[in-house]
Amino acid sequence: MTLKHKFLPYFTLFLLLGFVLPGLGQINEGTVVGTVRDSTGASVPGATVTVTNVDTNVESSTVTNTVGEFIVTNLIPGRYKVVCTLEGFRRQVFTDLTLRAGTSSRVDFTLQPGELRQEMTVTSEAPLLQTENAGVGTTLSNQAVVDLPLKGRLALNLAFLEAGAFRPAPGTSASRQTELSGGYGQSVVISGVREHYNNYTLDGTTVYQNWSGYLGYSPSIEALEEVRIDTSNNNARQGRVAGGTVSFTTRAGTNALHGGFFEFLKNDLFDALNWGAPAPKPAYRYNQFGFVLSGPVYIPKVYKGRDRTFFMINYEGLRVRRLGAGGVIVPTALEKQGIFTGGAPVIDPVTGSAFANNVIPPERINSIAANLLKYYPDPNTSGNPRFNYVSSGSTHSNVDQINLRIDHKISANDSVFYSMAHQPTLSIPRNVLAGIGTTTNGTLNKHTVSYTHVFSPTIINNARVGFFGNASTTLGFRAYKEDVWTIVGLAAVAPRVIIPPIAWGIPTVNILGYDPVSELGGGRGDHQQYDFYDDFTWNRGKHVLQLGMSFLREYELLDYPLYSTPTMSVDGRYTGTPMADFLLGDLSFSDLTQGVWSPKL
After folding, report:
1. 3-state DSSP call for residue 38?
2. 489-532, pLDDT tens digit by residue?
């Protein structure tokens, strides 16, 4: 067992003097900034600016500083209206503002003299160019996320729409990941930086694999409000990595109740036979299904959350069954008994002469070798030189995930949101040799709590804590059930090799000319990450002061037996026949003594 604690504390402290720099907004939330002037162009201090979410009626307010500038942070993505009021001027309303995650929108007001009850409405237009910061990236809305065709409906595939983002090179572990793993272990190359050096966040919480840098969790696209891909010129909050940042933001509930069910399927009944492939088509079942529901929290006769408390819950399941058949070469029943009549001469390494009738005497057969050969099935077909044993089976892949988000407006000055994700997985790959194989179970959890407090119209603080963890266990079919190592007699030959119950199974046997048999290698891993983040904004006088701190702690527990996969190999160097070598216990290689070559069972 190895235990590794990896501390990655990083602290970012920045002081900004001068004009407002909205690029410092949170990567999973948005910011509204602007300047208020009068009809002569003079700055207007002390004006009240109120930003209201159109779908939830949740308001955030501030006042302009001495140079007429304002900033409103920690706004969830969505549709907003912005209202500016000051005694002696007409009330001005800015409508149809769509705020994206990780971006800042500028709203400037020019107040006209008049009574406060008089109103002037301005309809916003999307800016042609983002001028508030130097960051390069793209934000994709919920409609784009849901409507764009995505293989496996994996959200990270959206990153390839951004210039400078590419798939990992063929052959890398990230390039081999598919939807069958739930998106776990995917990655992307951004701006030429290797796929290991990106950062991935979900609602501001880091969700990357701490040992590889790949994506650790792919949320259902039905649960996402936006996906933000930043490729270069990242600000201080995103500057921890050399590559890019991909930020996923979950949908927040609104005052309206929304819901939907979905299923996507693939089935061999709808597929054509591949060109040149023999009939019949292999069976294939792929079902991806689930639902999403959002709205105000409502408990009859107990609580009405309209304009205050909102929820979103999403479930998505994936079931894949891929039937396949295969053939291998296994020893015959006679060969297991040492009978090689009709074959090439089997030389007795003791005498240097061939065994009589090409039959190894029973008393010369090594008992360990004979016991190990029992795990080989007998041939069930003939006539094909490439295999004498065939079987069919199904690869099983199950992925389930639940995403939940709760937003609550505690008071005019306090708000909080909580989001979580839970994903159990099950994978059972098909093995041609019946009764031999492994099962992998995984469990992933993510929790985020974010709290925003407005000390005054010009002082705001946001604190966030997060947890992301993934635990997986891989077991052979005989783990905890059958101590093959002891049963076949290997424990007496190699007493230094200790096989714990989690790794019980068939050791690896490589006999030249036959397919290997192996089942060892079980173990478990537990990977955990803890996030803490705080952001303080103070709009004072002519300046905006912003202080921030971020802390990430990573923990990794691995329980994989050091010598859980002993190997025995034979190549026929002693008798001229590999199977005869094995029956006599004469090995060409083994690591039965923990790395020391041992030629004899």
Report:
1. strand
2. 988 888 877 888 888 888 889 999 999 988 867 788 899 999 99
Do domains 19-123 and 136-250 share one topology? The answer is: no
- In sequence order, the 6+-apart residues with CB closer than 8 A to the CB of 352 are none
**CA triplet 247, 251, 252: central angle to 5 degrees?**
125
Residues 6+ apart with CB under 8 A from 151: 157, 179
Sign of the four-CA dihedral 99, 104, 110, 111 = positive
Under 8 Å between Cβ of 346 and 583:
no
In 3-state terms, what secondary structure has residue 555?
strand
The predicted-structure confidence for 68-102, as pLDDT tens digits, reads as follows 989 888 888 889 999 999 988 989 999 888 888 77
The answer to whether 344 touches 392, Cβ cutoff 8 Å, is no
Question: What does the DSSP 8-state code read for residue 27?
Answer: T
Q: Which fold has domain 136-250?
A: Ferric Hydroxamate Uptake Protein; Chain A, domain 1 (2.170.130)
Q: How far apart are CA 339 and CA 336, in angstroms?
A: 7
Q: What is the value of pTM for the model shown?
A: 0.81
Rounded to whole angstroms, how far apart are CA atoms 473 and 428? 12
Q: Which CATH number fits domain 19-123: 3.90.1150.180, 2.60.40.1120, 3.40.640.10, 3.30.420.150?
A: 2.60.40.1120
- Counting runs of H as helices and runs of E as strands, what totals does the chain give? 6, 31
CA distance linking residue 418 with residue 87, whole number of Å: 38
Query: In 3-state terms, what secondary structure has residue 144?
Result: helix
In whole angstroms, give the CA distance from residue 52 to residue 62: 12
Residues in the chain, overall count: 601
Q: Going by C-beta distance under 8 Å and a sequence separation of 6 or more, which residues neighbour residue 180?
A: 318, 320, 397, 399, 427
Query: How far apart, in whole angstroms, are the C-alpha atoms of residue 518 and residue 507?
Result: 5
513 — alpha (psi -120 to 50), left (phi > 0) or beta?
left
Domain ranges of the chain: 19-123, 136-250
What is the rounded distance in angstroms from the CA atom of residue 494 to the CA atom of residue 512?
23
